[in-house]
Target: ProQ/FinO family protein
Amino acid sequence: MGFEQLAPLKEALVKQAADKKKKADAKKSASTGPVDPVLRTIGLLQKHFPLAFPKKPSPKVPLKIGIHKDLLEQAEQLGITPNEIRAVMKKWCRGKRYAECLVAGAVRVDLQGNEAGHVSKEEASQADKPHAPIQSAETA
Model:
């Protein structure tokens, strides 16, 4: 095969690869479906406050009591509503990963990751009970 025959072959292969990539991207976006707005807001908080809202696989950290008030103060800057903050705090603070971080004496953190109190023995014992309501950073 001469060099003059390689150029069209290369163009055809490049076009074929681009077509495959377009199809794969279209299939991926179609299969993922719409993103849960609460998860989208959690992602926003993880971007702005990575020490308070760590991404998996990092463990969650105990949040400052009343941290939702700090978020409400910054809601307009972040472009989120008070209802979105409530929904995020409910989801974030009521899961198994959050309950696991509520150990007596563990440091609670503010939005910047600074120390803002400690988990009490009572809060830790509530977290150990599988069906007991956990006193979350939102409700306290």
The CA atoms of residues 104 and 125 lie 8 Å apart. The beta strands are 107-109, 115-118.
